[in-house]
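TICKET: design request
STATUS: open
ATTACHED STRUCTURE:
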């Protein structure tokens, strides 16, 4: 499951609001947990959170929160559930300005890391810190700089695949720009 995710999905560009909101939400839920836990539960998360449609999630009530807290198929953390609902509302608000996709992608760095095999893994950057601060100003929560760096990797904004990996450059975002 993890191998398939990393070989097919991780690091590929995500440039639609629903897809980006889903990734943002799942990265927040992953905080403090293994990614494999989140990936195994992703189908249940999609059902529980209305396929991550921001308008639907923003309309969740306390009754929905209680329903989610009783759903063994997802991570039952009240703070993360409330953060997802708050982030849906913030996503809707952001539409009035630039929109979630353009806002997040505006923090793409001018260069991507060039990690060699076995080198230490970068967990945050100046851009992920700036993105974190900017999202917080816009009402988003659970968007710390490490979580935002993980998002940037997951959506292809940075290419964290090691040099020599068969996946390095596969997103097309950094072709010729490394």
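STATUS: resolved
RESOLUTION: sequence designed for all positions
ATTACHED SEQUENCE:
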């Amino acid at each position: 499951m993890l191998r398939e995710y990393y070989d097919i999905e991780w690091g590929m560009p995500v440039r639609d609001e629903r897809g980006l909101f889903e990734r943002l939400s799942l990265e927040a839920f992953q905080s403090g947990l293994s990614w494999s836990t989140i990936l195994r539960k992703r189908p249940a998360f999609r059902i529980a959170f209305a396929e991550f449609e921001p308008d639907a999630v923003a309309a969740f009530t306390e009754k929905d929160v209680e329903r989610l807290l009783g759903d063994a198929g997802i991570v039952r953390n009240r703070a993360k559930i409330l953060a997802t609902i708050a982030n849906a509302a913030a996503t809707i608000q952001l539409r009035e300005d630039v929109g979630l996709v353009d806002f997040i992608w505006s923090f793409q760095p001018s260069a991507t890391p060039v990690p060699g095999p076995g080198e230490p893994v970068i967990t945050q950057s100046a851009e992920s810190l700036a993105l974190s601060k900017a999202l917080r100003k816009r009402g988003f929560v659970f968007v710390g700089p490490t979580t935002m760096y993980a998002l940037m990797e997951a959506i292809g904004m940075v290419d964290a695949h090691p040099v020599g990996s068969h996946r390095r450059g596969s997103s097309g975002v950094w072709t010729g720009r490394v």
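CLOSING REMARK: The two ends are 29 Å apart (CA to CA). The chain has one domain: 2-154.
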